[in-house]
Amino acid sequence: MGASVTRALRNFNLENRAEREISKVKPSTAPRHPSTRSVLREQMSDHPQIKRDIARKNEKLLSLLKDVYVDSKDPVSSLMVKDAETQQEPKEFRLPKGHHFGMDIKNIPKGKISIVEALTLLNNHKLYPETWTAEKIAQEYHLKLEDVNSLLKYFVTFEVKIFPPANKKAIESK
Questions:
Q1: Could you tell me which residues come within 8 angstroms of residue 108 by beta carbon, excluding any fewer than 6 positions away?
Q2: Mind listing the pLDDT tens digit for each residue in 15-38?
Q3: pTM of the model
Q4: Does residue 98 contact residue 120 with C-beta atoms inside 8 Å?
Q5: What is the dihedral of CA 108, 114, 120, 123, to 10 degrees?
Q6: What DSSP letter does each residue of 52-99 carry, written as one string?
Q7: What is the pLDDT of residues 97-114, one digit of tens each?
Q8: pLDDT tens digits along 127-143
């Protein structure tokens, strides 16, 4: 949507703007150094044909230029070829599990999990590793087994431990 609006604004009145830019008065040449000004005037007065040659159009070159036709095509990029080869299959969605604390999540693509679900499954695996195995988590959340194994290996939930000050005795928990 944004690209089409940008393109429309960029191309708005393009021909008139181009014509206006082309018809503007061209900047004059830089001023000559005073020492060369007299030499240039002298050469122009001695050889008046130079001024005519500069102003004259070369008809032969113009006819050759009119015969030139350029037709170009952009080469197909390798990314486009890869995209064409690997057509994406339609995504399947699933309903989110658990409470998402006021977030408006309607559905989650299969093979993906939300942050809340990731924390929940990591905590469940930490508390009950016998029941929440990698295979069960993969089946429950529609994930690949290798992804679940990596998730369980490299991610852990925080564990809060409160240490008593050194000058007070700690109360033993039962």
A1: 93, 94, 95, 96, 114, 117
A2: 888 888 888 888 888 877 888 888
A3: 0.39
A4: yes
A5: 130
A6: HHHHS--HHHHHHHHH------PPPPHHHHHHHHSPPPPPPEEPPPS-
A7: 665 455 556 677 888 888
A8: 999 999 999 999 988 89
DSSP SS3 for 117: helix
Q: 107-112, long-range: CB within 8 Å, 24+ apart, which pairs? A: 110/142, 111/142, 111/143, 111/144, 111/147
Single out the residue of 145, 123, 121 nearest to residue 135, CA to CA.
145
Question: Helix, strand, coil proportions of the chain in percent (round to 5)?
Answer: 50, 0, 45
Pair 146, 129: CB distance under 8 Å: no
What whole-number distance in Å separates Cα of residue 77 and Cα of residue 83? 10
Structure tokens of 32? 């000559």
Residue 43 CA: distances (Å) to CA of 6, 10, 31, 38, 39: 54, 48, 17, 9, 6
Instruction: Write out the DSSP string of 143-156.
Output: --HHHHHHHHHH--
The CB density around residue 132, as the number of other CB atoms within 10 Å, is 19
Backbone phi, psi, residue 126, to 5°: -70, -40
